[in-house]
Amino acid sequence: MILPVSNEIKINSSKEKLWSLISSPGHLNLCHPFCKENKAINWNINDKKDILIYLNNTKYIREFYKWDENHGYSLLIGEENGEKSKVEWKIFSRNKKVFLKIKVHPHIFSNKNKLTYLFYHYFFIKPMLKKYLNSVLKGINWYLKNNKPIPKNKFGKHSWFS
What we know:
- By secondary structure, the chain is of the alpha+beta class.
- It contains three helices and seven strands, in the order E-H-H-E-E-E-E-E-E-H.
- The protein has helices at about 15-20, 30, 115-145; strands spanning about 5-10, 35-45, 50-55, 60-70, 70-80, 85-95, 95-105.
- The chain has a seven-stranded antiparallel beta sheet.
- Strand 2 (about 35-45) and strand 3 (about 50-55) form a beta hairpin.
């Protein structure tokens, strides 16, 4: 059992401009407040994979397995030979406004018994992931508004990645 954590934000930009940003190789360098480096390993039509190095030097590989042009994508993220979390990025409209939603299915503590997992999920994983996703989404919006790379830790530090 893995409980997902998600967050969404209204984007002050067009769907096309948002897609152009989030689908480009290395885009996290521009808009992710905890990103030290984001570099494409492969960025071909059927094989997309990159590396994300956080400010605290944690390295994760992102392997994209579903690509829905102009609407979003799904990927697996984690240490190169370790457990991976599933992440879904989705662009959608509501009341003629553009939104971006990120949903994470975190693998952390998923191997514990149900009660232990639920405790960790509600008191540790969910609040920390919500904070993280909020900063990432705000970073994308900030970049689209200001058209320059986001300052590191722009919305505050995060104990997992800063």
